[in-house]
Design goal:
By secondary structure, this protein is of the alpha+beta class. Helices cover 59% and strands 13% of the residues. It contains 15 helices and 10 strands. Strand 5 and strand 6 form a beta hairpin.
Length: 445
């Protein structure tokens, strides 16, 4: 780290000279009058804010159907109302002093305070566009310091001081000023890239001519491209020589490659999934014990929501290497098999007709595709049947439609006198002589 002592000394010397100049300036009678005027403006702003603020809130709440973003900006204005009123009163006072004392200079106290108050008010209002609280506070204080240095005439000296705090790697000069510029420019470009990606993603997501998988792939590719360009352009725009970091970035890349194998594998698997369209948002899949529909395709994982409201984040690699049952891959039709048994005394031809009719009476069972019932075998206690029917909305669940068909079978069998058997065992109690092994005595009570 190299420090240019002459630049630092000049910067502190300039600050001390400006301080002494302001002290001598405030000692003049005209400046004391301006300080008193500012105190009156502060008092009036406080009184007016207490009167106008509650009325503004009542008016905002009385208007029905107002969009949320308008209410949000009204609340923001309400919080900064006193500062805005003070800036307005200060500028009115500046106009009065100009007419009375020919007051053009910006270095006079009243004009300087009025300008700073208006600038701070605009900064506080504009910074609300940044949703992240930490970044919002960083933007507020950064812009406030910049405005203070600008109106105080110390901006060039501060820039020279920050540029003197630097580290040199051969021909590569890295200073605090360059880092600040890179952070500000890159941050603005990232913010612009985020706005563009959100707007473009909304438009692409509403385009029904593009398949769901291609929509997700296009959005991900667009986001990666925009953020990469934002970072690259931001660093190049402030004079960073990225070629000097080639060796360092190569070493970091090798280390990350070994440490992030699973992450890279999931990223590549996600791209493969999007390209081959094996799964897409809205598909109903089964993976192991997990059954649900795909809510979102991420860069690293797939979000699967089950019927009980749980959301499973399944790594993309598991969908590539494991066996996945996609219930709605080629179409939405799903066949469901039910197994049941009836007594040997019941006519199997009648049982088959009753079972098919009962299945078709359930709302979710398709009437356009035939339901069938076949004898599946002869069991110990019953004749076993298999009932097959079709649905086209597996996302609504399978257990509930199975339960509905079972209930319809129960009612139909009760109506037609069909018996649903259950396992039965005969227990025979033999006599004492036959039941007791030889050479065994029975104890007397």
């Amino acid at each position: 780290m190299e420090f240019d002592q002459s630049v630092i000394a000049a910067w502190f010397g300039g600050i001390w000279a400006d301080f002494l100049w302001y002290v001598r300036l405030l000692a003049q009678p005209n400046q004391l009058l301006q300080l008193a005027t500012l105190a009156v403006c502060v008092l009036l702003a406080w009184l007016l804010a207490r009167q106008i603020g509650p009325r503004l809130e009542v008016w905002a709440l009385s208007v029905e159907g107002r969009p949320k973003w308008q209410l949000r900006w009204i609340v923001i204005l309400r919080r900064r109302l006193q500062l805005g009123i003070f800036a307005l009163l200060a500028w009115l006072a500046v106009g009065g002093f100009k007419m009375l004392y020919a007051f053009p200079s910006r270095r006079y106290v009243l004009a300087l305070v009025a300008t700073m108050a208006l600038t701070w008010f605009c900064i506080r209002i504009a910074a609300q566009a940044v949703r992240n609280q930490f970044l919002r506070q960083f933007a507020i204080w950064g812009l406030t310091i910049y405005a203070a240095l600008y109106y105080a005439g110390s901006l060039d000296q501060a820039a020279a001081f920050l540029d003197g705090l630097a580290v040199d790697f051969g021909s590569f000069h890295l200073s605090v000023l360059a880092i600040l510029k890179a952070a500000i420019v890159t941050g603005l470009l990232f913010y612009a890239a985020r706005l563009l990606s959100v707007t473009a993603s909304a438009r692409i997501s509403r385009n029904e001519d593009i398949s769901p998988s291609m929509r997700v792939l296009t959005v991900k590719f667009l986001q990666i491209t925009l953020y990469f360009l934002a970072g690259f352009i931001g660093l190049k725009s402030v004079g960073f020589d990225l070629s000097g970091l080639t060796v360092l970035s190569g070493a970091i890349g090798v280390g990350l490659g070994f440490g992030l194998q699973k992450v890279v594998s999931n990223l590549v698997s996600g791209i493969i999934i999007l390209l081959d369209k094996s799964v897409k948002p809205g598909d109903v899949i089964s993976l192991g014990d997990t059954f649900g529909w795909i809510a979102a395709l991420g860069a690293r994982y797939v979000s699967v929501v089950t019927r009980d409201g749980r959301e499973y984040l399944i790594p993309n690699e598991d969908l590539i290497t494991g066996q996945v049952v996609n219930w709605s891959h080629s179409d939405e039709f799903v066949r469901i098999d039910l197994f049941f048994g009836v007594s040997y005394d019941d006519d199997p031809h009648l049982v088959r007709k009753i079972a098919v009719k009962a299945a078709l009476s359930v709302d979710r069972v398709l009437k356009t595709r035939p339901a069938v019932c076949h004898i599946n075998g002869f069991g110990d206690s019953s004749v076993d049947y298999i009932l097959r029917f079709w649905i086209r909305d597996p996302v609504e669940g399978l257990t509930n439609v199975r339960g509905g068909v079972y209930l319809a079978l129960w009612d139909a069998f009760k109506e037609h006198g069909v018996t649903l058997p259950f396992p039965q065992r005969e227990v025979r109690i033999l006599g004492d002589g036959a039941a007791r092994p030889p050479n065994v005595t029975v104890p007397q009570p």
